[in-house]
Structure formats: C-alpha cells, structure tokens
Amino acid sequence: MIVVSKFEKLYLLRNVFIPIICIGLGVLLVDVKVYYKKDADVFFPVIFLLILGCLVLFYNLNSIYKLIAEEKTITKIYFLSRKTESIPYTSIKSLDKEFIDGSYICEVGQITPGYYSYILNLEKDKKLIVSPLYFKNCNQLITEINLRISSSVPEAS
C-alpha cells in the first residue's frame, strides 16, 4: 500500500507566520510614511523587514517536505524546490521513538502538550523525522514504514 503524507495545517501556518509579520510591518511602515509622516525615514527598516521576511519564508518553505511510503522506498519531495530524494528501506539503520514534552517548547501553534516524534536513522549519519507536528497521518506513515522495514530485513538461515 502506498501512503502519502498529509501536512498539518498548523505546521504550515507556523512556517509562514513570522515572514508574514515581517512583510506586514514593512507595508505598515510604508503606509505610515505615505499617509501620516511624510518626513519619516523608513527606507532602511522597510527594506530590512521585506528582505528578512522573504529570506525566512524561502528557508521555511524549502525545509518542508512530503513523504510517500512506497513498496521499496520512501520518497521525500521538498515543497518549494520539488526536489525528490529516494530512501530505500534497506538504508534505514534504526527507528527511534522520542517523546517531545510540549511544555518546554516555545513554538507558535502548538498542537498538543506532548507528542511522539519518530526519527529514522539512515546510512551516512542522516536522519529523517516523522512527527505529528508535521503530518496529520503520522501514525499511518510510521505503521507502513515499520511494516516495510521488517519485510526488507533479510532473514538469517
């Protein structure tokens, strides 16, 4: 069975919240100059906020990815660049389950007071994180990945 990840809306909102605030403040400063204080020097703050907002937005959108758990591989597709990465199940060394206590995390848009995050340790010291903070169907993804990992391990004779 092929399982395609579904984005958590609050995760997407959190990734665009700060850039939207920066861009909105830049527009507000231009509005102040045009309508209220004609002599206000807002050129540098506006440019700074717009550049900062665009850079943070680009970075955040480039780090978001979609997972597709297929028969032989996990396909990781980046949201902005559409770059794809195939991860064969045989390259997964271990699957770690880690409890993230939400009371110690200062993140905007917290979904729960705590949740389990799954870390797939791959070859070449790479990691792939599957978390309910990122994906709505995290449990379905992990169940499918566990099933495929156990079936891809060669049996000893």
Number of strands: 7
SSE pattern = EHHEEEEEEH
Largest sheet: 4 strands, antiparallel
Radius of gyration, in Å, reads 21 Å
| Annotation field: number of helices | 3
Low-confidence stretches: none
How confident is the prediction overall: mean pLDDT?
A: 84
Strand order of the largest sheet: 1-2-3-4
Q: Estimate what percentage of residues fall within beta strands.
A: 25-35%
Features:
3-stranded antiparallel beta sheet, 40% helix, 157 residues, 3 helices, alpha+beta
Can you describe this structure?
The structure is a single chain. By secondary structure, the protein is α+β, with helices and mostly antiparallel strands. It is built from three helices and seven strands, in the order βααββββββα. It has helices at residues 9-35, 43-63, 138-152; strands spanning 3-4, 65-69, 73-78, 84-88, 92-101, 114-122, 127-130. The chain has a four-stranded antiparallel beta sheet. A three-stranded antiparallel beta sheet has the order 5-6-7, with helices on one face. Helix 1 (9-35) runs antiparallel to helix 2 (43-63). It is elongated.
Q: What's the gist of this structure?
A:
Keywords: Membrane, Transmembrane, Transmembrane helix. The chain crosses the membrane at residues 12-30, 42-61. The protein has 157 residues and is an alpha+beta fold.
Walk me through the topology:
Blueprint: E1 3-4, H1 9-35, H2 43-63, E2 65-69, E3 73-78, E4 84-88, E5 92-101, E6 114-122, E7 127-130, H3 138-152
Antiparallel strand pairs: 1-2, 2-3, 3-4, 5-6, 6-7
Helix pairs in contact: 1-2
